[in-house]
Specification:
By secondary structure, the chain is of the alpha+beta class. The chain has helices at about 5-15, 25-30, 80-90, 100-110; strands at about 15, 20, 35-40, 45-50, 55-60, 65-70, 120, 125-130, 135-140, 155-160. The chain has an eight-stranded antiparallel beta sheet with strand order 3-4-5-6-10-9-8-7, covered by helices on one side. Strands 1-2 form a two-stranded antiparallel sheet. The mean pLDDT is about 90.
């Protein structure tokens, strides 16, 4: 599976390899077999961010850790080719250095019952929200050409988060 196919699947399902909002820490660990860093972002240790480099899962309510958000930092593939190789090996997803939003939309159009996407101009980005799957896609809306960073029309990040709690 390539990066555009993977992102279209995430947008359509609201899940990353079968895990999503509400999944346990153990479920995420079984699915994402890769190195990570655990970061406690609060003094009471009630929040946990598990950072896999390109993807981060946030959890609350320790010790019953449940996923509250997922962030796929697609732009990091542009600056770190090692991340591409790691994802190919660990997640069986073949990302390229950049992922064009048009390619993701093409893949998403082939998905039966694909969610409706509501665009919103966020300045340098256009946010596309799929309310039914609680996914936001941030696409670069600047006029920059690709270099070590994605350029106009490329996916910057994909965020899964309950819109009611956001």
């Amino acid at each position: 599976m390539n990066g555009a196919e993977f992102l279209a699947e995430v947008i359509a399902s609201g899940r990353v390899h079968g895990v999503g909002i509400g999944s346990s820490l153990a479920e995420v660990g079984r699915v994402l077999r890769a190195d990570f860093i655990d970061v406690h972002d609060d003094p009471d240790n009630l929040q946990l961010r598990r950072d896999y480099g390109v993807i981060e899962f946030c959890f609350t309510d320790g010790p019953q850790w449940r996923c509250t958000s997922i962030s796929i930092q697609v732009h990091r593939f542009g600056t770190d080719p090692n991340q591409i190789a790691q994802w190919r090996t660990a997640q069986q997803v073949d990302f390229s250095q950049y992922v064009a939003w048009d390619d993701v939309l093409e893949r998403l159009s082939a998905v039966r019952d694909a969610p409706e996407l509501m665009p919103s101009n966020q300045g340098e980005f256009i946010e596309y929200r799929a309310a039914s799957t609680e996914v936001s896609v941030f696409v670069l809306n600047n006029r920059e050409e690709r270099d070590e960073w994605p350029g106009h029309g490329d996916v910057w990040s994909v965020v899964l988060q309950s819109f009611e709690k956001a």
